Amino acid sequence: MTQRQPRPLTPDAARALQLLLHPRPGPGLGERELDAVEERYGFRFAADHRVFLGAGLPLGGGWPDWRDGDPAVLRELLGRPVEGVLFDVEHNGFWYPGWGERPAGTAAAVETARRALADAPQLVPVHGHRCLPGLAGQFGHPVLSVQQTDVIVYGADLADYVRHEFAGRPAELDRAEVTVGFWTYVYRENNGLPTDGT
Question: Is residue 151 a part of any domain in this protein?
Answer without folding.
Answer: yes
